[in-house]
Amino acid sequence: MPKSLFVDPVSTLAPGKVELGSIPVNTYSRSVAEERAALGDDNLIRIYRDITILREFESMLHLIKTQKNYNGVDVTYPGPAHLSVGQEAACVGQAYLLTKDDFNFGSHCSHSEILAKSLSCIQKLSDKELLEDMENFLGGRTLRAVEKLSAPEKLGAPKDVKELAIRFILYGALSELFARETGFHKGMGGSMHAFFLPFGVYPNNAIVGGSAGIATGAALFKKVNHQSGIVICNIGDGSLGRGPVWEAMNFASMDQYHTLWEEKGGMPILFNIFNNSYGMGGQTRGETMAYDFCARMGAGVNPESMYAERINGFDPLAVIDAMRRKLEILRKGEGPVLLDTITYRFSGHSTSDQNAYRTQEEIDAWKAIDPIVTYRRALTEAGVAGDSAFEVILAETAERMTKICAHAADTEISPYADFKKDPFFIERTMFSDERVEAFGSGEPEMLVPREECKTLQRLAGKERAPMKDGKPVSKMKLFNLRDALSEVIIDRFYEDPTLISYGEDVRDWGGAYAVMRDMNQAVPYHRLFNAPISEAAIVATAVGYAMCGGRALIELMYADFIGCAGDEIFNQMSKWQAMSAGILKMPVVLRVSVGSKYGAQHSQDWTALCAHIPGLKVCFPATPYEAKGLLESALMGTDPVVFFESQRIYDVGEQFHDGGVPAGRYEIPIGTVTKARPGKDITILTVGACLYRALKAADTLKERFGLEAEILNLSSLVPLDYKEICESVRKTGRAVLVSDACARGSFLNDVAANITELCFDDLDAPPVVVGARNWITPPYEFDAAFFPQEGWILDAIHEKILPLPGYVPENGMTETEQLRRARLGV
Amino acid sequence: MATAVIMPKAGISVESCLIGTWKKKVGDTVRIGDVLFSYETDKANFECESTAEGELLEIFFEDGDEVPCLVNVCAVGTKGEDVSALRPAGASAPAAPAPEAEKTAPAPQTAAAAIQETAAAAGGISPRARKLAEHAGVDAAQAGGTGPGGRIIERDVRRLMEEGPARKAAPSEEVSAPAAQTAAPAAAAPAAMAAPEYEDIKFSGIRRAISTSMSASLQNAAQLSHTFSFDAGPLLAYRKVLKASEGETAGITVGDLILYAVAHSLLECPDLNAHMLDATTIRRFSHVHLGVAVDTPRGLMVPTIFNADQKSLLEISRELKALAAECRSGAINPDKLTGATFTVSNLGSFGVESFTPVINPPQTGILGVCTTQNRPRLNKDGTIGLYPAMTLSLTYDHRAIDGAPASRYMQKLCRSLENFTVLLAR
Fold this sequence. Notes:
heterodimer; A: alpha/beta; Rossmann fold; 7-stranded mixed β-sheet; 5-stranded parallel β-sheet; 12% strand; globular; B: alpha+beta; CATH 2.40.50.100; Dihydrolipoamide Transferase; Chloramphenicol Acetyltransferase; 6-stranded mixed β-sheet; 11 helices; 18 strands
């Protein structure tokens, strides 16, 4: 909602009609003879060679899955084999013009995409570059295994570095599928997550359409950081049924790139639909979709219809032709682009596919135009080469694949990771735990120097402690939790040139809770911008941005919207570091606010959902001192952090840290517990805004019952250092745990279980979790009936831990009530 | 708004009481101070006066029910008021709405509801309390549990360490099964209804306490008894002198004389003026708190004469009379029924010649006073004469004290009794 864009009622309400431009369909018509001059015979033949390499790889997997044997090599492979036999020509054609600076992202059946892009790069890179890339990869471990293929009884010495690189790429991919330590990701990614960054091959993805948002994020990285190259997002026609794909296309096409950003121009991304007519077995055209031509989707996105076009993916030359034209559009800054690349999958979706959804007649009709036959015939007919030359290529391809298969299956050469010898093998890669102040080396692009930054000026005028000269500081002047967040964010903008921040209404509005207030006057558009209301795209693009080497701070207005970005948070942001065996870093900080007053879909504390997912760090500061120190840590780190903020306490000042919030930089390591109040009789563990209700309960315990409660605030949930918690509980023997999350499944149940195990002999009563009721959040007027209150804490202590003399409980914390609620599931 | 009347707490160590008889019924008008019901602890009877005015709306517990102290017993208010919020968990439910109410009504929440409802289930000991008891060498089982559901928690063990063991609270197990058994034969043989073959009697609080305490005593302690006799002639002669005196001293009995002798000699044998805290620890007391068995219509009661070693014969006599009277009337403060370090039980008036008194744990000894019989004795001149021989039976806990020192003490006691006036002179 920038003021510079006038929403004019006159033009908005003016009559007229929307003209949709025409979308070209299969317009390529040039002959091989015509292409010989442009491409050269060697390249035409090499295209054929690449198609056979891809076909052999997929055929091999098919045989292994169905017969446990490939050309005499016995091998068992229990993992997924989503094959794309038949789609090789489209992949080779797509990769033909791409360089290592162009990134491609893929789907769950992307073996051919990965291999084709790699083969294309091998052709373009110098021997020196290739040797360096291979040598530097995983410390040369994969290359050492590949070199053993040079033995005379195996493949013999490679005729050149390119041949060595071909062996390398096939072996790295296959041993990755076979879950071996010599694989591209030490076997931890597998078939659906393989990639090879040195050749610009970025991850494929087991979630249908999962790459759409991530690839968009990669394009965002290129655009924001002025990097060369374009991004290819390979997805299937089936993925067009997914909302996040639509979100990604829209995100990639936003008007603001042309209207508001300082450097005008569209996103350098090509959404390529490998349209084989089926999403698993569901037929897209005619059954599950309505687009008729999937290229039509472009017309729904922008006035250029994303320069959409349908092309014949069975003709590698038609694909090369289209790519040449689309790359030109992208390089001119007029992206994004949409390609509807027609192809066909001869094999089943997986080896269990019985082809119940299509006829043999249909398969045969497509097989009749199989490019491995038709393209070769065209080359022969054009006189590019004779049949014997192609037979030699086929024989070479089969021989190479057979020996590589045996090599990758051999556990001596290609060992599995040994979890007994190295029990921390996966553990080490769950978090990268590095500290990187700035990902780029250039000068951060800002609109004004620090001295003129309004946000910094405003913060400088605040009182950093709640008391001054013995008097309480007025609310307006007090440096509060919101200010603590602002202070870190604006500081990082001035320090890390790659840092970008976006979300709904973060720019002109300053964020719904004013954390980003006035930053639009200091931070340029391309580093701070309003995202569409597309939570999935917001998170996925950040994932892609981080994969490419940038740092993203993104915001979902309410924690409740985590559901809208479920896959992106739970499957993408959390898993890529470990699935890549630590090759990728994921410096993404996702801010989410926990609402109040806004009812059932805007008031939920979903920390438990995030804490449950391995690979995410989870913070929930409750004081300004914690907020600043933790956000600083998160924005210096290299791991994905979900950063919860409670709308109830954006205004609180610092009550616990001596001297208030320091003006300088400091970091609180994620996992640290804050001792908000010392005590000896009972430990109260709090999360989020509950800290302040626990303080009241502690006052009452002191005044009425002479009990000194120790309050520990868990400002981090994952990771969590139990040392101080255990020390406290061992001292007091009693623990009550309080958070605004619904009690059932609350993360605090996990903490309570751990306390019970770790401190059992010192416990005077079981740790008791006090959470919100297992209801919808009612309107604000009923807040006290739903969220834990001071009285609930006292009741829990009285009923389950330490009966308080003369105390009258009234909040239903009895065992009978506990059992009744559980029985009814409420 | 309706008001609850709670079960009073009749002494520091009292955790629950039995309702005796309701004196008012639902619908009656009650005023503040009206007696609502009688109740008893394991040691005494009391009457509960109403603390509210209005109509008795609902009675939550029936005659004979055991009710934790401070739990709501009944509700008083204006006719038609909803009293569900006052009804404690575990109370007798009102007759009318049963199944539906169970589904939808939230569990009633009152002051001690949780304690009441979990009482049967828990009653264990927290790991922390157990660890502390082990470390301090005290028997955690002696600590009354004040945690949820009667769980023994840290503070209970700390109290035990500071104040010593309390008399065991009344056992909480309900003896309900026999009631069902009574019904069965009656149904099977209606003809026999006129004259049932037996009757099952639910124990009173006192009976239950005795039952538990006595069986626990015999199960847990290594008890054995030694019997001695002494020449009671001088004692009886002194008693005659007293009886002939004027005023209060005339009422001093032989039993009082024996109590005095025990009180003023027991500190010489500290292991008999002691408590066994657990199998490895004994607590010796610096003063003698003498428990005296008193027969009452409700059963055996044992009030304590505190610091008896510092009291005169007349003081002991006077105090025992008062305590016995309170016991018989049932009005004794329960705190006077605890804290003894040694007990004397006198069955002499029943003609008991010798018996094996049972130790009242955690004490280490109990002296049984038996009847006096004339026994022959070889006089110095070689003739045979008779003398009044009084028998004393000491039961002691062999875990705490061996036979020789116990016997030495008894010898000393006998000599003291034979030379009572010398003892008095000290």
